[in-house]
């Protein structure tokens, strides 16, 4: 580590074996390619900024929208035509990049490889996606600036994809071009992987990940960074929050088939009534919250408790004991449940009855009813556990009405003359493996973030012995990384951003990005790539 020349706060908690949230030392590139001036230029030079605006804006003007059920390129080439345009645009805009990196296309997905000189070092994999959420035609009139204009008002760039996430894609390419310009040649291979349907099925990322796995094998990447969370302020401190976990997912689709008949001579309960009872049973028995040691939310709270002097004293005591003491754990759970629904569901499997269909006519008994219940599964649970829970409710109702149950094609209870439930799992996905926050890779990421934000971006904010805390976070949705789990244990979903208070309106009308954020992505990755290039893999052990 290199701290020379800085008046730094230094390591906090690393020398204290009881610390639950040690703050690592600054991590500064020792490479001769690293100069504060370069970072300053990226962040503050007007010429650089204007050129960068043009690059991002141009990419926004190519509407790479994807809808659900979009299909692969060989099935629908005309639908993917804009991706071809984007690829041409990238080649024209980043000639140095394309000269130095190997490009591979898998349908519309892209892999770029910047071969390092030391093939023993695990590659660093950086991700973004090329596609954007569609703009609803009816909403175009509501946009302050045309959704595909990439309009720059001197502060923000406007348009679909400016914050999710062509900003990241373009910034990564700009970073690499800046490194090429100073003749940097990586020791550690750098791979960029840009999916083409993250906002839809994610099939593109699946194919890209498969390719990388075939080529490099499992657990072959040093780390993976994809789009994700940024910063939050809590109790007067600023937290960088890379997401190290994602909840699981299941759509439980349950249909009930019963004999038909005339409405004038109905049974006491029609299939609609019976399914209503099932829903009632599920909603009256929600999942219990769970806050174990592995939950990154506990990790985040421990950081708040250790580093924020203004936190309520008894809450602090409970948080710091929550991993050891059941009463303290329960009190923290109650605190999170009261705080907000969003907090509650970071530690709880959610269930939402989202779709129901059934019945056809006023004089005919409904013969077929179906319901879809969406589950977002807590990191400690599995989709099979959730399916068991659903099955338990099905059995109760089936017993009462003498019905059969078929689950995923398997007969659990024989269908009777009264009918049967058919239960299928749609789109099941386990919770993501949790990225460790006690290893060298986390320390390098945290130490780089500290140095970059404390010294280069917001030095006045940190003048008085204040410091940035890097704490684990969890995403409630999934990014393309869901296809990359086997490639690395160290997956971070994090996008550098400015600390300006504004709404980026991602996925909605008036999506925009503060251009400071864009420049920070370029500069941060410049520093991070040099840091990662300067370390060896063998030191990447649990500390
Ligand atoms: Zn995205």
From TrEMBL:
Record-annotated active site: 131, 198
Taxonomic superkingdom: Eukaryota
Compartments reported by the entry: Membrane
GO cellular component: fungal-type vacuole lumen; membrane
CDD domains referenced in this protein's UniProt entry, alphabetically: M20_yscS
Sequence positions that bind Zn(2+) 1: 164, 199, 507
Sites where the protein binds Zn(2+) 2: 129, 164, 226
GO molecular function: metal ion binding; metallocarboxypeptidase activity
Protein family per UniProt: Belongs to the peptidase M20A family.
Protein name: Peptidase M20 dimerisation domain-containing protein
Species this protein is from: Pachysolen tannophilus NRRL Y-2460
